[in-house]
Design goal:
With about 100 residues, chain A is mostly helical. In chain A, about 75% of the residues lie in helices and about 0% in strands. Chain A is flat. Chain B has one domain: Cytochrome c oxidase, subunit III, four-helix bundle (Four Helix Bundle (Hemerythrin (Met), subunit A), Up-down Bundle). Helices cover about 75% and strands about 0% of the residues of chain B. The chains are: A mainly alpha (about 100), B mainly alpha (about 200).
Chain lengths: ~100, ~200
């Protein structure tokens, strides 16, 4: 294997982080918020942290070659543009 | 040329790639990138549709606690998958078999719970054609469920190969590549759970 030379991450520590963040997400969703934006922003932020943990440590992106990171990040950037354009269509005033 | 052909070892191909990354693994990453675009399209459409129309609160329709437990099971199966890879890399095939079986179990439980959830929701009258929320909910979770189903089939196949002794400490690229797919399915669910169920 070409990618096995890195040190083994503490997978159980990542698991406990994921579990804690999931509990945090549910707690954030249950407690009342003044605006839907605050609710959505908190949950999306926690979900992104969880997704990054999975990608970095379980998918070993942190230990892979830079090529992989660039490849994966490029699709995320394209995806972000796609979603932003869609949201912009809804949020921005129409002529 | 003739001698080279006789001594050819297919496993050595892993080290001969121009990128330094085995072809199987690179292929899986490219496939996962296309999957990112696919799910981004679905999530983007969901966001646009949701904020462009009247939307019910998901918590009033969906069973959050059941899905939270299911999310926990999928995260556990991701951990067991990565532990299976860790053990096979360390040469402990017995533990690798155990963790692959646990991953298979986790994936199967997730699918079973999703089927139960669908049956319950359909019985309650929450159909794909009842509202825009229903359509998008079944589309997104259905496509994800299909990915989980494909993953479970592949895990069953790789577990079978592991029990037949096809994977060793030196040659286990199949499990590593499958692991990438499985973790990606977990990653997508983390986002879907947050966006579809909690917001």
């Amino acid at each position: 294997m070409t990618s096995d030379t890195h040190a083994t991450p503490n997978y159980m520590a990542i698991f406990w982080w994921l579990l804690g963040l999931t509990i945090g997400e549910i707690g954030w969703a249950i407690i009342p918020h003044h605006s839907e934006f605050v609710l959505a922003a908190g949950i999306v932020a926690l979900a992104i942290v969880k997704a990054v943990l999975v990608a970095m440590y379980f998918m070993h992106l942190k230990f892979e070659r830079r090529t992989m990171g660039i490849l994966f990040a490029s699709t995320l950037i394209l995806g972000a543009i796609l979603v932003s354009v869609g949201i912009g269509e809804q949020v921005l005033p129409r002529p | 040329m003739h001698d080279a052909a006789i001594t050819f070892d297919p496993h050595m191909e892993e080290d001969r790639t121009t990128t330094g990354i085995p072809h199987d693994k690179m292929g899986m990453w490219v496939f996962l990138c296309s999957e990112v675009m696919f799910f981004t399209g679905l999530i983007g459409s969901y966001i646009v549709l949701r904020y462009g129309s009247v939307w019910p609160k998901p918590m009033e329709t969906l069973n959050i606690w059941l899905t939270a437990a299911n999310t926990f099971i999928l995260i556990c199966s991701s951990v067991t998958m990565v532990k299976a890879l860790e053990w096979i890399q360390k040469g402990n095939i017995a533990k690798a078999k155990l963790f692959m079986c646990l991953t298979l179990l986790g994936g199967s439980i997730f699918l079973s719970v999703q089927v139960y959830e669908y049956r319950h929701l359909l019985h309650e009258g929450f159909n794909p054609h009842v509202s825009l929320f229903g359509s998008t909910f079944y589309t997104m979770t259905g496509f994800h469920g299909f990915h989980v189903f494909c993953g479970v089939v592949c895990i069953a196949f790789c577990t079978g190969k592991l029990f037949l002794g096809k994977y060793t400490q030196e040659h286990h690229l199949g499990i590593e590549t499958l692991g990438l797919y499985w973790h990606f399915v977990d990653l997508v669910w983390i986002l879907l759970f947050a966006i579809v169920y909690l917001i």
